[in-house]
Amino acid sequence: xxxxxxxxxxxxxxxxxxxxxxxxxxxxxxxxxxxxxxxxxxxxxxxxxxxxxxxxxxxxxxxxxxxxxxxxxxxxxxxxxxxxxxxxxxxxxxxx
Length: 96
What we know:
- By secondary structure, the protein is an alpha+beta fold.
- It has a single domain, classed as Herpes Virus-1 (2-Layer Sandwich).
- The protein is 16% helix and 11% strand.
- The chain has a three-stranded antiparallel β-sheet with strand order 2-1-3, with no helix packed on it.
- The N and C termini lie far apart (73 Å).
- This is Ubiquitinyl hydrolase variant UBP zinc finger domain-containing protein.
- It holds the Pfam family zf-UBP_var.
- It comes from Psophocarpus tetragonolobus.
């Protein structure tokens, strides 16, 4: 018998904190390494401490704190289509 992800989340909801306006949420860079949401694995935010970890450090944080719920943030760069015309300035006006 396998546990469904939603059932696993429901069983750990007591560990999830709701951020308040005074809480700082570190979601731009891993607190241990230089991983960011644009890194290969993205960032994982611990939903109890609101600290961010790269994919290599999530297991370490789980072993240390026992917090099993993370928010995964991953950004990918969207390439602009090449058939779109580039918008170059045609006039230069200074002080007009």
